[in-house]
Structures are given as C-alpha cells and as structure tokens.
Amino acid sequence: MKHDFLCVGFAKCGTTTLYHILSQHKDIYLPAIKEPYFYYSKGYNWYINRYYDKTTDKKLVGEINPAIAMAVSSKTPSQIAKRLYDDFGKDIKLIFIMRNPVDKLFSWYACALEYGWIYEKPSDNALKGKTFSQGFAEYIDGRFTHDGNLENVKLNLGDNPRVYYELEGNYHAFITGMLEYFPMEQMKFVVLEELIRDPDSIFKDILAFLGIEEDPALDYKQRANEGDRCAGSGLSVILTKAWKRIMLLYHKHGKFHSYERCRRMMEFDLKMEKLLSVPRSDFTKMTQETRTLLQNYYREDKNKLAELLGKDLNKLWYE
Question: For the chain, which has fewer Cβ within 10 Å, the N-terminal or C-terminal residue?
C-alpha cells in the first residue's frame, strides 16, 4: 500500500466534501474512515495496519485528513513535514484546501461547541441565553489582545490553552513548513470560495494534478458537513464528549477488519453525533467588530499566502 497523495488541511474548509467526491472515483482508494487518527505518536506501521487494506486494485491511494494540519497545536509545521517526508516519501503529492480564515474560525467555533470543546461547564456550550454571534464575540475577546482600533492583534493562548483553532488559519505559516521538504510542484492549493463558485473546473484541476482521468459518474456539486447541528443542552454535551472518548479509544486501539466494517463504524459515528445534537436554528452572523479584529490578526499571513500563490486573496476574502 503506497500513498500517492494526501490532503493535509485545512479543517472546516471543505475537506469532507472533497472526501465524499473523490472516494466515489472508480480509480481512487481512500480509507473508509475519512479522518484516521494522526499516527505521529503511534507510528506509521501501526497507522497503515489500522486503517488500510493490504492491497488495492485502484490506480491511486490517498487520504483526506485535516487532522494532520491540526497537529500544529503540538508540533511545528516543519516537524510535521519531516514526518510525512520520512514516512510517505519525497514524491507524495499534497493538497491544501483553504477558505477565508475568519469564516473558518467562525465555523470551527460552532463545531467545537457541539462537541463541548469550548467551555469547561457543559451547559455553557449550549449558549443558553445568548446568540451564537454573542458567544463567539465573547470567546474571541478572551483569546486576543489588541489596541483600541482593533489593531496590533495578538493571540493570547495562556499557559495552558485548551484549544488552538486560531493557529490553523495561518495557512502560509503551515505551507512554509511543508516547503522545507516538498517542492511547490507537488502541491495543489484549492480555495473553497472558488470551489463553491465553479466546482466542475476546480475538481478537474485536482484530478489533473493527481494525474488521473475524470470519472463522469462523479457529482461535483455535493456539499457535506455544513455545520447545521448544535448542542441542545448540557446533558447532550456530556454525552457527546463521552461518545467522542469512546471513538478515540476505537481509533487508538481498534483493529482493521475490513473496509466495509470501517465504513459502517464511520456511518454509526455520524448517526450518534446526529442523535446527540439538535438542528441549529441560530445562524446570527459574526459582529463587524469581531470580524475586523480577526481580519487584522490574519492579514499578514493572508498577504504572504497571496504572494506565494500568486492569487488576489483580497477579492476572494478581504482587503
């Protein structure tokens, strides 16, 4: 089993949609579980035996796993890149899918609330008595320092930060770490806003990058994991966190039996998430003050990314 490509990031940028579409391609093998447990601490051989069939007749083997980029909470980008280089080889192709980092963080907040990752008190994650927008604004105020003009913004993680979602929006910093080990020609950069606008063209570019023919059976207009669920109560948060601990044990200590069995387990996990949450009814937008603060925080990295990609991100994201 030799990998041909990895989509290493970024979370809440369309990786689930990318997975569902590419997994239907007749010549592409992706693991039945979309996001395998990142193997950094357990070793590459464990990972291959845990998630993959020993052989496949597909032309390409790949993985869509934003957990790799999420490892910036504990590893530097260059450390992650070296591990990928050592284990997957120098010829592996890398896909990065990105979106406006401000909107990405807003979406991440919704996901983290559902899983009970934001606040210590479970019921606080249900945001009773406040709108989604108000909760996000308060959360951001506690994570950043800035001057009176919302400039000179700095991330204040503290001595023992609970979450690192903000770091994942520094795309240029992560990609620069990858470039220490992999050349630009082995990287494909996808911008979610362009993918939504013209999915047929973008997916054709992705398949061309992978060196594989188009599959007319694919529906490029699918969308998945749109953040339309939320925690209904403190109890639902407690139960969701308990279920996620069980799933973590399954990922760390379970064994690979068959592709179909892994797929059924993934489907069951999604059903449990739906059972333990409720449809989201509050879609209040981010306050302009919070948006301005975050735009100022990400602006330097965004401008460096635009220069690296040769793309006008001001038109796609913000000035």
Answer: C
Q: Is the pTM of this model over 0.85?
A: yes
How buried is residue 54: exposed, middle or buried, by Cβ count under 10 Å (0-12/13-18/19+)?
Answer: exposed
Residue with tokens 């979406």: 107
At a CB cut-off of 8 Å and minimum separation 6, what does 205 contact? Answer: 188
Q: Which helix (H) or strand (E) holds 188?
A: strand 187-191
Q: Which residues pair with 62 in a beta bridge?
A: 5
CA neighbor of 236 nearest in space, from 187, 298, 279, 290:
279
> What does the DSSP assignment read for 100-155?
-HHHHHHHHHHHHHHHT-S-SSGGGGGTTTS-HHHHHHHHHHHHEE--TTS-S-EE
Give the model confidence (pLDDT) of 156-214 as tens digits: 876 645 567 899 999 999 999 999 999 999 999 999 999 999 999 999 999 999 999 99
- Per-residue pLDDT tens digits for 19-44: 999 999 999 999 999 999 888 889 99
